Amino acid sequence: MLDLNPSQIVFLTAVVLYTLVAAISDLRSRKIPNRLTVPMFLAGLVYQIYFFGLDGLGRGLTGFAVGFGILFVLWMIGSAGGGDVKLLGGLSVWLGAGLTLKVLFCSLIFVVTGTGILLLKALLTQGFSKTRSQYVKSAGNTPGKTETTEQRSKRRVMAFAMPVALGTWCVLALFRQQW
Fold first, then answer.
1. What is the C-alpha to C-alpha distance for residues 169 and 94, in angstroms, rounded to an integer?
2. Which of 16, 47, 110, 163 is the 20 to 30 A CA-CA neighbour of 156?
3. Please, which residues have CB within 8 angstroms of residue 145's CB and are 6 or more apart in sequence?
4. Domain-by-domain residue ranges, the chain?
5. Along the 179 residues of the chain, how does pLDDT read in single tens digits?
């Protein structure tokens, strides 16, 4: 049985529930709402200050800079959605920089594996041509015309929140001494 102190109970409860709700929302609607991410960010700041003082606040803000920053860059180049950026922003305040990097790496493993499985399934059930037209940006777009967020979302093979949730849970299980 786990012997947890109050800060660990709050941490574990908040992080597991947040990632679970975000994953369900992303799977259902391909959206992670601000009403979920913004309160989690603010609660993370309160948690860090309440349990760890200014050191905790520094750890939380550093985690935010890492998690939000990396996903923001990916969003800028069109490889991540805005909800994904906010998801990591809200989560990383709780995790700090070290655990955030571990979650990102573990999530990447889940993304690559899941994408491979989903693409293979699509190839086997729909064939190459239909799978290609579903997931590859059409070259027939007129020059200067940008793809809408909805069009880009439909092209995405999988929602990102589920790999983040799975990655977070794996990191929490493997690196308990760091939280």
1. 14
2. 16
3. none
4. 6-178
5. 678 999 999 999 999 999 999 999 999 998 999 999 999 999 999 999 999 999 999 999 999 999 999 999 998 987 788 899 999 999 999 999 999 999 999 999 999 999 999 899 999 999 888 888 877 876 555 555 666 666 665 666 678 999 999 999 999 999 988 87
Q: Which residue has the tokens 């969003």?
A: 75
Distances 138 to 86, 125, 155 between C-alpha atoms, Å: 28, 21, 10
3-state secondary structure of 17: helix
| Three-state SS at 175 | coil
Q: Name residue 94's amino acid.
A: W
Residue with tokens 């290609």: 132
Q: Which two tokens stand for residue 7?
A: 């800060």
Neighbours of 142 (CB within 10 A): 5
Token pair, residue 70, equals: 């990396």
Residues 153/111/21/28 CA torsion (nearest 10 deg): 40
Q: Which two tokens stand for residue 146?
A: 């940008």
What is the rounded end-to-end Cα distance, in angstroms, of the chain? 17
